[in-house]
Amino acid sequence: MNAAFLEWLQNTPLAVSVGENWFPWVESAHVIALAMVAGTIFIVDTRLVGLTSRQLRFSYLSERLLPWTWGAFICAAITGSLMFIANATGYMTNTPFLIKMGLLVLAGLNMLYFQQVTFRSVANWDLGRPPQAARVAGFVSLGLWIGVIACGRWAGFV
Amino acid sequence: MHQFSDWLSATAFSQAIQVTSWAIPGIQTVHIAALATLFACALVLALRFAGRGLAAEPLHQLAARFVPAIWLLLLVLLVSGALLITAEPGRTITNPVFYLKMIMLALVAAITLWLGRAARRELERPSSLHVFAAALTIVLWAGIIVAGRFIAYVESY
């Protein structure tokens, strides 16, 4: 990304105020939001791979939990953006941060493929053992989100 | 406490964690993944007490899965948390925010125990006190997360 733009972003009054006064609070809100995002995803994923909540219909579980995931994801994206602008030039050269963004894109693509292809036949496996494609999607999602958490934590140490 | 902290950080086990560069972020990743899952399980349980979320399932049946999951995840958090304290005792055991976090943890554990027992009695219409207590657990878990993050920002004495 353009260095002058990042520089400008970092010097906006909002970015300066986050960096100087609000960073620990924004970070705390980010952890609460990410906990809700990753936690609800883990509950859905472990159902998808056939480990938990096997007596519940998959469509029911995902339909009831995913609105919470999305609401929390919006909060995580807002708080994450606030943390990013506070040190925009630093994050753009922070390798774990860049890997984290890449993993988020992959998690999104995995979900999109699952929704558009595998989930279409949900009526056939809503209560039984999900087909292999669904289980693969669940394991991939679990791995990607653990990677997102690990890179997020690692980014803070660089 | 300072003596204990110095002794602990000088032990071979603590030293081994300190010199392994990936150990602390690695343990923190386990800690965060477990807390995320616990927070979501606590949320599902609290929502069910309020008649929302996975409301099609009877409360006692839902609690029979989610309450043990909360205890199992809490165990993972205690073990990973204990490892983090062992690695950097000076950061936590002389930090007032850490004790605030432990007080909130004791409270939320007691409330969860009580709610778990209430749910097991196959109560189908939780009282408003149960619903309030369930909402309180979410506030306390969120407070625990905030306190956990502030350990890094508040000076130890």
Structural write-up:
The complex is a heterodimer of chains A (about 160) and B (about 160). Chain A has helices at about 5-10, 15-50, 60-85, 90, 95-115, 120-125, 130-155. By secondary structure, chain A is mainly alpha-helical. Chain B has helices at about 1-10, 10-20, 25-50, 60-85, 90, 95-120, 130-150. The longest helix of chain B is centred in the middle third of the chain and has 29 residues, at about 60-85. Chain B has about 160 residues and is an all-alpha fold. Helix content of chain B is about 80%, strand content about 0%. Chain B is built from seven helices and no strands. The interface between A and B is medium-sized, with 28 and 30 residues.
Structure summarized in a few sentences:
The complex is a heterodimer of chains A (158) and B (157). Chain A has 158 residues and is mostly helical. Helices cover 80% and strands 0% of the residues of chain A.
